[in-house]
Specification:
This protein is of the alpha/beta class. The protein has 9 helices and 12 strands. It has a 6-stranded mixed beta sheet with strand order 6-7-8-3-9-10, sandwiched between helices. Its main location: membrane.
Length: 269
């Protein structure tokens, strides 16, 4: 059964100070699916994700979680449904890995609810899935960028929410761990029908893993839909200013973008 939770933006305008970055945008994440947002730098994709996560208040319009304004919903209630991994999270000084991952269980705690075996199991499963179990007693400050990123992803998974937003979750990871993380998120989506929204830089990985792709430029949505329906050479040129050939990915059959330099000719046929 697919997730029944909905996350929408209505006539959403976003910015910092007097600078507007996103203007009057409408969006609905398909429940129980994987949505990936792509676009060039400064296109507004991370700003949009921050707003959907309630980390950035809108200049105008609204973000609705299950039909309710997310800024008028109690923080703990939002956190029990919606998890977020921002682009550059900051860990408390000297915290060890197991404790940081355990903080993902905060929304499940209450005035009279203590740490339970279920919390232990959720934390252990998240750490096992992200391959950080052997780092449990290490200080987060001592980890490499890639290790730290996997620990943050483990914390987001330990939260066990039905909607999960991740801004550049593959940052600092080598290609092997990038695929591990994206496979893990796909497994999570398929096993638990978690609604996922990711910002990714790699267009080919976005096409391979997205059920629903959103292409942004200059604060607006240029196209959205299944990658196979919308990703064409003309769209890539419009959004990224890049000449390319779009061919089937030999591993997945999804669109694969092959960049073309000035000295390359688009294959015929």
């Amino acid at each position: 059964m697919a997730s029944s939770h909905t996350l929408q933006a209505r006539q959403l305008s976003l910015g910092y100070g007097e600078r507007e970055i996103v203007s009057r945008l409408d969006l609905a994440l398909p429940p129980g699916r994987i949505t990936v947002v792509v676009g060039p730098n400064a296109s507004g994709k991370s700003t949009l994700l921050r707003a959907l996560a309630r980390l950035l208040p809108p200049l105008a319009g609204s973000v609705l979680l299950d039909g309710r304004d997310i800024h008028r919903t109690p923080t703990k209630e939002v956190a029990a449904t919606l998890g977020v991994l921002p682009q550059s999270p900051v860990a408390p000084d000297a915290i060890v890995v197991a404790d940081l991952v355990g903080r993902g269980r905060y929304p499940h705690q209450g005035w009279f609810r203590r740490w339970t075996r279920a919390d232990d199991e959720a934390v252990a499963a998240a750490m096992l899935a992200t391959d950080v179990l052997d780092l449990a007693d290490r200080s987060v400050d001592e980890l490499s960028g890639g290790q730290r990123q996997r620990v943050w992803i483990a914390m987001a998974l330990a939260q066990e929410t039905d909607v999960l937003l991740l801004d550049e979750p593959t940052t600092y990871l080598d290609i092997s761990h990038q695929l591990d993380v994206l496979d893990l998120l796909t497994d999570l989506n398929r096993a638990r029908d978690v609604t996922l929204a990711l910002v990714l830089h790699d267009l080919n990985l976005a096409c391979r893993y997205a059920d629903h792709l959103i292409a942004m430029k200059a604060g607006r949505i240029v196209a959205e839909g299944p990658p196979g329906d919308i990703v064409t050479a003309s769209l890539v040129h419009e959004v990224f200013g890049l000449r390319s050939a779009v061919i089937p990915d030999p591993a997945s059959g999804t669109p694969m973008v092959v960049p073309l330099g000035r000295h390359h000719v688009t294959p015929s046929g």
